[in-house]
Amino acid sequence: MGDDGQHAVTSPPVAGRPGAAGPVGDIAPEEFRAHAHQVADWIADYLTTVDRYPVAARIRPGEIAARLPAAPPEEPEPLAEILADVDRLILPGITHWNHPGFLGYFAITGSAPGILGEMLAAALNVNAMLWRTAPAASELEEVVCDWLRQLLGLPAGFLGMINETASVSTLCALAAAREALTDLRIRERGLAGRADVPRLRLYASEEAHASVEKAAIVLGIGQEGLRKIPTDAEFRLDPAALAAAIAEDRACGWRPFAVVATVGTTSTTSVDPVPAVAEICAREGLWLHVDAAYAGSAAIVPELSWALAGCDRADSLVVNPHKWLFTPLDCSVLFTRRPEALRSAFSLVPPYLLSPESGGRDLMDYGVSLGRRFRALKLWFVLRAFGRTGIIARLREHVRLARSFADWLDAAEDFERLAPVPFSTVNFRYHPPAVGPSGDPAVEAALDRLNERLEQAVNASGRAFISHTRVRGRYALHVAIGNLRTTAEHVARLQDLLRELAPGLT
Ligand SMILES: Cc1ncc(COP(=O)(O)O)c(C=O)c1O
Predict the structure, then answer these.
(1) Residue 3 pLDDT grade (very low, low, confident, very high; cuts 50, 70, 90)
(2) 3-class SS of residue 98
(3) Is residue 332 in contact with ligand 1, taking CB distance under 6 Å?
(4) Domains of the chain, CATH where assigned
């Protein structure tokens, strides 16, 4: 604005033109164009040759930082030099999640359409805090989340919104659940120092993700406010134990308020019995949040739609397209049937953000963040470029590859599968009969050490990357098929590696 409060009329900025304190404006458009072409070529080359890199970075902690200048640059540096340093300084420190041999944690894909969406989102750089500040981003988010709802088979009435991670989505859902205890007026009065508020409790299985416990910490419920419910032989929450825990807690003066059921637990991808849990929640008046961060996407495949059975009764549900739906990090969709509870928890509108024309759908009202990236754009690209049929074929292929790997393990005398394989994740361990029988504490300890070394050896090979977890206390090797470039050849490569490396470690 000019001194008189009017908008100053200026000529368009000339990039790099000298100003009083040095050059002003952005990099020259021609320079940007040339480098943007280079970056596009770089990305296309990377995606076609990523298989040639060792999957895990071969560096020690601190090595990358030590190679970088400790102080910021005083003078401008040419883009060409910065780009060259990506190859020289950054790539050696990359563990390649987009590598087809990346089979650890929940393997993911930054797919080509998703990358294009992400590039455009950076160029537009809209902030979708209000409908007014980003009409297309706000409306595309609504539409694309509704497309995902339909693909997942959830009923109309679930409203979707995009957060950065499932951890944040779960936090927001549980904040809404807490806010739904309207008589306690926690939003205004807080929890600390109040004698009139009973201790609040939420429930999740012992296999639930740590993000549930973190949410309990952040929301002032505390770690003791999360009661972990035992699971059955297939790692699924035991509904009878849940019902008993709620009754016991009520009798002891706790106030139960929410249950988190998991569809696809982090370690074994088990699926909690949501229909039975929903029944208990309805009876007890508790908020039901479903964490389907990984396995929710599976429900797009007709023969896996059972995964979300009963979820139509959930108050909220999270699915991460950045896990098993080929969308570059970050993209987590939180669905809720009770958007008004999220609004009650989070809407706080200072005068400078008043925008009556939005019709009540300003995204800032549904979460912690004010500023919001245009994440819907990449999800739109992904859903359109693959389509329902393309997504189904790809997810099916991942499940087929995981099952073929599980079959290979089952046929091997010296490998042991440690959990069922409902989706595309397999937990197992190397157990040569000579080490001794399972269950013997000394044997179990030896197997833990052996498998830890096997994991390290596989990862040091650079040809595949796997991770680990504990399954009923046992050190388990964890393989997840989730990258679009992973083929039967990569699974066979892992099998060869295991065969080659394991015997030498005993
Ligand atoms: C079941 C489950 N829920 C939540 C999360 C957390 O996801 P995010 O990294 O998006 O917070 C994970 C991560 O693997 C998970 O496995």
Answers:
(1) very low
(2) coil
(3) yes
(4) 127-190+197-373 (3.40.640.10), 384-505 (3.90.1150.170)
